Amino acid sequence: MKPTPAVLSAYAAVAATVALGLAIAAFVRHPDHEVLKTLDVGRINVREPDGTLRMTLSNRADFPGGYVHGKEYTHAGRSGEAGLIFLDDEGTENGGLIFNGARVNGKVSSAGHLSFDQYDQDQVVTLEQTEDNGDRYAGLTIADRPDAPIDFPRLLALEGQPDGQAQFARMRAAGAFGHKRLFLGKSDGNSELTLKDGEGRPRLQLLVTRDGAASITFLDGNGKPVRSVTP
């Protein structure tokens, strides 16, 4: 006997109800655990139960701004990166992993950057590499930062001003952001270890050039070599 339209409709309704029930039952049995083979997303935010943001994984288009105590600020200095941003228990950025790379008009521009920040301050440990039109740099940098919290909203606002970079340069020269104390890596074709004093002045440098010339150099407060040891 051929089923009537009414019977078919009833059958479809029952089948849909059963399927929905099974799906709900599966979710109820495992409300906090889902297994996926592949997940394509633009951005993932990891939050605490109270909603505090702790980590963001993002593509370039959806990359976030700067976070300070739970509030997001526009970060004009971020463009062209993808990666991870780490946030502390209070919702303030305290490090991240970002990267980019492309060949444009035959010229390579590429970078990878992993950093960790002092509380309410900027990065103190940085591992990075950059390549820009044949110039390559890679290394580990350790920095000192001031004890006082950095004024993130003010600095982020400066990024959008015409003279923002000039103001940054003056503040950096005055020591407003602290100083780099150690660099270990390669730069300008040399491998080097440079140790600096509390004012960011190089005082000891171990250097090996590309052609193999090695030296240990002691410098005074003005950056002038006062003694050099070579093989």
Plain-language structure description:
The chain has three helices and 14 strands. The protein has helices at 5-29, 152-158, 164-173, and strands at 43-47, 53-58, 66-68, 71-73, 82-87, 93-104, 107-117, 123-132, 135-144, 179-187, 190-196, 202-208, 214-219, 225-229. The strands form two sheets. The protein has a twelve-stranded antiparallel β-sheet with strand order 1-2-5-6-7-8-9-10-11-12-13-14, with no helix packed on it. It has a two-stranded antiparallel ribbon with strand order 3-4. The protein is globular and about 80 Å long. The N and C termini lie far apart (101 Å).
Topology (elements, then pairings):
Elements: H1 5-29, E1 43-47, E2 53-58, E3 66-68, E4 71-73, E5 82-87, E6 93-104, E7 107-117, E8 123-132, E9 135-144, H2 152-158, H3 164-173, E10 179-187, E11 190-196, E12 202-208, E13 214-219, E14 225-229
Antiparallel strand pairs: 1-2, 2-5, 3-4, 5-6, 6-7, 7-8, 8-9, 9-10, 10-11, 11-12, 12-13, 13-14
